[in-house]
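Take a look at the protein record below with the fold in mind.
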Amino acid sequence: MANLAVFFAMIFTILINLCYRSEAQAAAVGINYGLLGDNLPSTEQVVALCASRGIGRLRLFHPDAAVLGALRGSGIEVVLGTFNEELPGLASDPSTAENWVAANVVPFAGSVRFRYINAGNEVIPGDKAGHVLPAMRNIDSALRAAGLQIPVTTAVATMVLGVSYPPSQGAFSEAAAGVMAPIAEFLRSTSAPLLVNVYPYFSYARNEVPLDYALFRAAGTPVIDGTLVYDNLFDAMVDAVYAALEKVGAPEVGVVVSETGWPSGGGDLGATVENAAEYVNNAVAHLGKGGGTPRRPGTATEAYLFAMFNENQKPAGTERYFGLFQPDMTEVYHVNFYP
């Protein structure tokens, strides 16, 4: 009887550890769900696919009532974006932001777990850049008026950096700094993170870094930055953003990787199924450890893989081949979400 009790105690401990591990990884890795395809599965099928693979977070680039409806009661956390074209109106008129929140957030807030609202995607620097912070403020005020506490942020590409190497010298470019500094202060004041799209692939495709460094397999040839050691470009890119935030007086602002991925086709350098599978699986394993980056050790990096599906209405080339799944929901390559 004593031996049986010990056996069941061991089984219980294993199950608890597995549950803890799964929750920790679900908290670190989500996925981007785009809709630029004419052959994509139903929203209900997508939610079921997420549940079957343990995907606990989704990023939506813009509101879609069918998707949000399918997510009701799923427990999946949602990052919800605005259309870039909406930014001028959201920035200039508080009532436009109130209507946006009333139409796209309030009807679902009781049964959909909104994690962040991001005002615009990759518009800094650019002609819409000046609208981002006013839009963020108006959306934040509209959410608070509706009794909702959802962090408001924006998503930027690493092109906001004028300097990224070495990571400790990371700084916003002259074109972006005037916009990014007040955005960073707003994020600091509201305890919201900055969303950043991080793509080691493009650095490799421009022949800027070795393939091993881009694919998380350069442990034998690390990059040394003072006392910090980097064996992968992903961490170096994230830390360059942290350094830039520090330089504008916002060291408290966290960085969430809102997109990262690798194309499996499209004809460009390195765009193969083998490289895509290695990058994504290595990224998931790296993120699942929860160790953070050399500049932020011990602070798990929250990240969203790009993307759920290959989308045939995107521009021809690699843009159509970032999906983990084909539109019929078969795998482009296998991803071990629980390595």
